[in-house]
Amino acid sequence: MGSAGAPVIEVSGLTKRYSDVVAVHDVDLSVRAGQIYALLGLNGAGCWPSTTPTAWTRTGAAT
């Protein structure tokens, strides 16, 4: 677990496309140890909450 105040999840400029459709555009997110976040789509559901974590876990090695 990260130290107090240190980000345990940090994403900058995340964009996910499906062919010509941009599903997620230029997302910046920083979650610190102990914080709770919820990801909601435009209607309270949708692909945004599943697309974003999937995209950030496939962008490369953790730093």
Jot down its keywords:
63 residues; alpha+beta; ATP binding; transport; antibiotic resistance; nucleotide-binding; ABC_transporter_ATP-binding
Characterization of the model:
This protein has 63 residues and is of the alpha+beta class. Helices cover 16% and strands 38% of the residues.
User: Using only CA atoms, what is the Rg?
Assistant: 13 Å
Write down how many β-strands occur, each being a DSSP E stretch of 2 or more residues.
2
* Helix coverage percent: 10-25%
Question: What is the number of helical segments per DSSP (H or I, 4+ residues)?
Answer: 1
Low-pLDDT segments, ≥5 res: none
Give the DSSP E fraction (strand runs of 2 or more residues): 35-45%
The class by helix and strand makeup works out as alpha+beta
Overall 3D form: globular
> Which sequence of strands runs across the widest sheet?
1-2
Distance between the termini: 14 Å
Average pLDDT works out at: 74
Task: List the domain count as a whole number.
Answer: 1
Largest sheet: number of strands, sense, barrel closure:
2 strands, antiparallel
Task: Output the helix-strand order.
Answer: EEH
